[in-house]
Design brief:
The complex is a heterodimer of chains A (136) and B (298). With 136 residues, chain A is of the alpha+beta class. Chain A has four helices and seven strands, in the order H-E-E-E-E-H-H-E-E-E-H. Chains A and B meet through strand 1, strand 2, strand 3, helix 2 and helix 3 of A and helix 5, helix 6, helix 7 and helix 8 of B.
Chain lengths: 136, 298
């Protein structure tokens, strides 16, 4: 109990098991697309550019990337860029990857879940950078 | 029967069935722990630094474990400790294995996302080690089983409490399940390149009442999980929890395979089945021996 109290509810193998505890809130998750063959002029919200890039191909876990995305703000700090470059080290030399932030929320009518996607990060042989920096 | 007797049953003689079931519980726990240690090696090597420190990573630099050689070395050491602990019954070694597995866990999950699949087997390993430290050798497995059941019941019930504290009774609203299902679909698409709703998920996404009923059953199961502390209710409650895990897998594609395996090992009345078989075999042997004696006497 003391270990859990002092470590935000997590001290393996002890946990307060908080998963799925917050219901009804909108979510945000990353989605990686391969835009190696796409002309980089239309990184817009809405339609997804390029082709699907399964994280399996890079040996990465969506949950790891998802947590990073929560931390990421508009600008990519050098250590964050280095972290992403390390994660995609095995594939970024051959692919240009665009990371979208996909958000899901309940429609106002309450009849369905609405998804929106916004491109936020670009990773390729030149490194990882935020799209805002790319388009400046 | 007090709660302590229900959990540890310390004075009752151990039957052969109980010994076999407890040995199976121990074997499965150590195998799963070694399996987790190896499965975390590859993802650990993708990491360069700890983003969110968990457990001992708050006090120790675990970044050397991001090096493949150290990650493999740690997994190998954990495997050796649990193997020697199991084969030679040197269960104090499990405490060392649990400590090393903790370091492997916090290094693997240093990106911030916590996976809870390994917690129950980790608890079992720790319980076996602690029991070896504090209990007579003959009673170690039973004490470890009791402690694992206690912590499992507490863990599931605390999960329900977290839901009620964070969201309140509206947690069971079917809309919440819609949001989680859509989130998991996006995760599967990102992970594998494509995803499709299964029949149950498609049905739930069309029917809010059904989705609410599913969440209500899940929450009630978790909330009542502490009832597994009582021996008579244990099989029923544990199998209900197993059913909940299978339901979570069907609706949210989240598999808790290790939990299901450990819970089934503890919940199924294997000991009773083995003891009944032994009793029947002993009766048969006695009958045939009596018959031989009678023939001999004649």
């Amino acid at each position: 109990m003391l270990l859990l109290a002092l470590h935000r509810g997590e001290f393996w193998p002890f946990s307060i098991y908080p998963m799925f505890s917050r219901g009804g809130r909108a979510w945000s998750r990353p989605l990686v697309r391969d835009v190696s063959e796409t002309v980089p002029t239309s990184w817009e919200a809405g339609a997804l550019a390029g082709r699907a890039f399964p994280l399996d191909r890079a040996g990465l876990d969506q949950n790891d990337l998802g947590k990073l995305l929560v931390l990421f703000q508009d600008r990519l700090e050098p250590d964050e860029a280095s972290l992403l470059e390390g994660l995609f080290a095995g594939v970024r030399m051959q692919h240009r990857l665009l990371i979208y932030r996909v958000s899901g929320r309940l429609a106002e009518s309450g009849a369905e879940v609405v998804l929106e996607q916004h491109p936020i990060l670009l990773i390729d042989r030149a490194g990882a950078r935020s799209l805002k920096d790319t388009l400046r | 029967m007090t709660l302590l007797e229900n959990l540890f049953d310390a004075d009752a003689p151990e039957t052969r069935g109980e010994r076999v079931q407890a040995m199976l519980f121990e074997l499965i726990s150590v195998l799963l722990c070694a399996g987790y240690a190896w499965s975390w090696v590859e993802p650990m090597t993708h990491q360069r630094r700890v983003v969110r420190a968990l457990g001992l990573a708050n006090y120790l630099d675990v970044s050397p474990l991001f090096d493949l050689r150290f990650a493999v070395g740690n997994a190998a050491l954990i495997s050796c400790l649990v193997a020697v602990g199991f084969v030679l019954r040197q269960r104090l070694l499990y405490l060392g294995a649990a400590l090393l597995l903790h370091l492997q866990f916090v290094a693997r999950h240093g990106m911030g996302k916590v996976s809870h699949g390994s917690h129950l087997v980790g608890t079992a390993l720790l319980a076996l080690g602690l029991a070896a430290l504090f209990v007579q050798p003959a009673r170690v497995r039973r004490a470890a089983l009791g402690l694992t059941v206690f912590l499992a019941g507490l863990g599931y019930t605390s999960a329900a409490a977290c839901k009620l504290i964070a969201t309140g009774p509206r947690w069971v609203d079917g809309h919440n399940l819609w949001l989680w299902i859509s989130e998991k679909q996006l995760d599967l698409t990102a992970q594998h390149g494509s995803a499709q709703l299964n029949l149950l998920q498609a049905w739930l996404m069309q029917n809010r009442t059904l989705a609410t009923a599913v969440l209500l059953i899940g929450l009630s199961t978790e909330l009542l999980a502490w009832l597994m502390w009582w021996k008579k209710l244990r099989p029923l409650v544990m199998l209900a929890v197993v059913g909940m895990h299978l339901g979570i897998q069907a609706t949210l594609d989240v598999a808790f395979t290790a939990n299901v395996v450990v819970l089934c090992t503890v919940a199924l009345p294997l000991a009773a089945w083995i003891d009944r078989y032994d009793l029947r075999t002993a009766k048969k042997t006695k009958r045939s021996s009596n018959a031989r004696d009678q023939v001999g006497a004649a």
